[in-house]
Automatic annotation (TrEMBL), chain A:
It comes from the Bacteria. Residues 1-42 are annotated as: Disordered. GO terms for molecular function: ATP binding; ATP hydrolysis activity; transmembrane transporter activity. Residues 48-282 form the ABC transporter domain. This is ABC-type Fe3+/spermidine/putrescine transport system ATPase subunit. The keyword Transport applies. Pfam families: ABC_tran, TOBE_2. GO terms for cellular component: ATP-binding cassette (ABC) transporter complex. The lineage of its organism: Bacteria, Pseudomonadati, Pseudomonadota, Alphaproteobacteria, Hyphomicrobiales. SMART domains: AAA (SM00382). GO terms for biological process: putrescine transport. The keyword ATP-binding applies. Keywords: ATP-binding, Nucleotide-binding, Transport.
TrEMBL record, chain B:
PROSITE patterns: ABC_TM1 (PS50928). It is a multi-pass membrane protein. It comes from the Bacteria. It is found in: Cell membrane. Residues 75-281 form the ABC transmembrane type-1 domain. GO terms for biological process: transmembrane transport. The chain crosses the membrane at residues 12-35, 74-99, 111-134, 154-181, 206-232, 260-280. This is ABC-type spermidine/putrescine transport system permease subunit I. It comes from Rhizobium loti (Mesorhizobium loti).
Amino acid sequence: MHAHTNKSASYRGHLTVNVASPDQTRQDQTRTGSQPAAGPQARDAVLLGIDHVGKRFGFGEGQITALDDARFEISDNEFFTLLGPSGCGKTTLLRIIAGFEHPTEGRVLLDGRDIGHEPPFKRPVNTMFQSYALFPHLNVRKNIAYGLEMLRWKPADIKRRVDEVLELVQMPAFADRRTTQMSGGQQQRIALARALAPRPRVLLLDEPLSALDLKLRKAMQSELKRLQRETSLTFVMVTHDQEEALALSDRIAVMNKGKVLQVGTPEEIYARPKTCFVADFIGEANLIPAGLVGLADGHTISIRTEHISVRSRPATTRRSVEAIVTALTFLGADTLIEARCAGDVPIKARVRGAVSGLAVGDRADFAWDHSSEWLLSE
Amino acid sequence: MNARLTTILLRSPVLVTMVLFMLAPMALAVVYSFMTNGAYGGVRMPFTALAYRQLLFQEDFDGNLVFSTGYLAILWRSVLLAALTVVASLAIGLPLAWYMACSSPAKRARLLLLITLPFWINTLIRTYCWVLILRDEGLLNGGLRYFGLAGGHFLYNDFAILLGMIYTYLPFMVLPIYAVLERVDGDVIEASHDLYADRWSTFRRIVWPLAMPGAIAGSLLVFAPALGSFLAPDLLGGGRRLMIGSLIQLQFTSSRNWPFGAALASVVSVAILAVLFVVVRRSFNKVPAR
């Protein structure tokens, strides 16, 4: 695996420089073929185009940029995730796709048609709300039928479709129940069924798993993946949970401060982050100034914690830094070793099993293979 | 202390309040209505149903009883006026409550204060202000004339009474509806739009059903006092068109016919309770949608 910088980077070390371009990214995808979720499905047809979309609130000095020049394309049949910390603009972007907000710049293209300024009730896009937003005065069946009634489906078709989606979310016995008497997990399935029922072109999921407890969350993750496969719909999910994003998505857009920083498959984003933020946000990465290991200054290298080994003697064949251990945390399967190297730069290593012969305050050598480091320019 | 006694003791404040302030006065009114009229007001024995006879029949010159619709017409007119007040305040109150529920929390607090502000001023004074506005030389006519428009007689008609009633009872409609709508999750409205419902459909299918419990409570709160009100009919209607409230009030003051006043009051109470009974039963059957 080779390192990779931005176009602007002028690094001339012994690392191979790879200039990123969208085309190349796509080639990488096909070459590596490491998309377990992609399967045999074609991923060529562009369904949703986010074309230089920006959203600004307010005027003049008090203006806030919630979203700045977002652009990417989502293919038909894709599980796409907008990932970022709170306030990064991911929810604003989702609301723009849904039609609850209108972009101040750019276009939202659905099947090539600009829908950016259409009201939500004219878009073949449905949302599963974070709060579920079920209609409290309607029972399960009427909740799910609502969209179909608005689309003026025939009553017989509505009944058939409601039964079908209830089957799909494994809640067929709940048709005549009141939604207010149901648990969070059950309500979520109904909300999902309601959004799926009208067969939207795009299904939007706003932090779908955040309100569930850990066990239910794991179950619902595989459930969502299954549903996406079975319905062959395009899912666009918003989340701040990188694990969730990695587990579910075909592709991820990492966002911060209103900007889309990187779009790529989970593997790409994990192994080849473009910026320090992405490296840090996805999994645990060590960000070490390149100068510290004898490379050109001004750059940063990122190494995943699990790629670092810790030993008492310096290893000559591999890249290494000396550091003083500040904490040892036993995590069951792994032990997390935290340390500080020259210039007070923190470094963390995650090693298998328990660690013996190492204590806080010890001087140790943190080493890794050249192949597991990744050069960042920002 | 055993559980049964605890239950009774815990319930007693509610029971005492209800008996003392609600049941006892009503029972007293019913008892008075079956007694004989005292010469200088008040009531005396023996028990009689004369007051109720007076409600439906009149004695002609020969002493025969003739069925008379005079008092029933007044009752009917009052019910109609109260119903109109309910409809009008619902038409104004629902959008107003919805607007308030959709506002930012700071704005909500301000609007809520504005709505309740009139409660701080005596109803008599507030109603009299409408006289100043509506009379021939009042603010409204002055304003119209200022803009070169023809004025008119706005005071002392049914319209003036209705206006005064709506003005007085509107807060009783707005507040319960607002209380219900305020708790509605805004996402529910967005979900409706998301599921292909335009604004009108969303109002009809989501907002209105969710506002219903508040609208029912508001309607009762407006209807009951509107039916018995006498300030607006007297001041703004000029007392020429007698309403049931004024009629009852007259029996206890100038007419000095307490049993008849009590009988009228009892009939109104029964009418209101009947409406209440029907509405509450219907809404209880309706709200838990099955």
